[in-house]
Amino acid sequence: MTPGSSKTKPPSMSPKAWASAQEWESHRETITRLFWDENRPLREVVEIMSRDHGFNATPKMYKARTREWGLKKNLKVSETREIIRQAKHGEISVPLEIRGRKIGSKMLKENLRVVNIADPDGNHHNPPNIHRMAEAALRAISDYSTVAFQSATFNFSSNDMTPYNWDSQPCTWLQRLWVAADNVAQDRDSAANFQNLNYCFDLFVSLLRQESPESLAVAHVAFFKLLTIGPELAKVFSRFLLGLSTIKNGKTHPLTRFWLKYNEMEPDEARRAASTVMKAYFDSVAAHLQQSNWIVMYLQCNHSRLLHKQGAFPLSEVEAIFEKTLTKMSNDMISAPSLAEMESLAPDFRAVQMQLVFFLSDNCRFFEADQLLQEIGLWWESDPNHSQKYAVLYSVWVMAKGKIFYGLQRYKEAQPYFLEYYNIVKTTAGLSHSTTTSALYWLKENTLKLETTSATNDTALLVKIVEEYKDSWVMARIIKQEDIEEMSTE
């Protein structure tokens, strides 16, 4: 180059063309292996692909393509927080993996470490789905009772839950649903049977509105009662409860979360979780009370017995609950400061004993059940006013006697007790009351047994019982419709 001459640039090399869509797909496995499986930095992947494969693309192009392929090494802060929340509530499986590689930021991995279970070698494992769902249900149960006590929604000073009160609404609702479910089991082709069951679903709306401490427990028992008839009925009921709670309380409310978990469980999973869930609920309720509450102990005995009857509560655990409860109650009565106070505790003690009688009968231990009934009978005889003062409790004693004979297939001996039970509840509570409906159901079943197993043939009585049984349902639905119309005009 001569002095003074202008400096000339060498001819520019035209860059190689950027990778086409077809080339991206043909090299996808290689890029995925380098970037994801081997966890190499992006700049290193760019260099290797250019040098060894003649593949040209900018880092920005790589980022767009790997996102499209779902290879996200890091998450947004909002995504990280949501995953941690879902993991803690058992809503997702953790740690999150794609092609066997954990994803997310260091913060995510640190937070998920407390959610996972680690073995002695430091390897993290996911607990089975049932454990995660049960844990989420338990957390929802605990949160529900905490919220209910903090907002003073639960009230244990009320007499509405006493076992000798005709108007214990959760209990009478369960009684009616139980009869309706048994009718469906006997005849699935009957439109009237499903109409009655649907009526019971409608009734639960008022229970949810009241938020009695017993409402969740009876709904839980009802779920398993329906499950014994058919999984589809139980699922319909749990979805119904989930929808009700979502509308009334919102998606994040503990009650909504609880029924969401039961919607996700398979029938066998729900049965395995039932006893743990119910014990946790009553333990949580008891923990919020300053002193032991006999009503809570009674409810736990009753509902554990009913769950056991549906195959959802182990026999030994129910026995332990009864033993613990009756021992506690007996000690409280012995240590009562006065005879009058001790006598005031007796009805609750007898009510739990009555539940034990039903539990023994359910398990065909009729001799033990009858022995206990005779002991309770001595209490009735000790004061003639007891049977009138505690009419519900006395009627249950009469019913239990009938059921023992029914279980022993001694239907003729059972009949007078079922008739007496029916007459007591009809006179006291009325034909439309669920207790009367239940009494008519048992009287009808026993009379039918008499018709088929003995020479007794009282067709007129059977026709009358069947007609009154139908009327009790019709009247109940009419009263419910009048209540709805009255509420709509307020």
UniProtKB/TrEMBL annotation:
Superkingdom of this protein's organism: Eukaryota
UniProt feature, compositional bias: Low complexity: 1-16
This protein is called Clr5 domain-containing protein
Q: Where is the Clr5 domain?
A: 20-73
To which species is this protein native?
Apiospora kogelbergensis
Annotated region described as Disordered, given as residue ranges? 1-21
Xref: InterPro entries: Clr5_dom
What single Pfam family name could you report for this chain, choosing any that match? Clr5
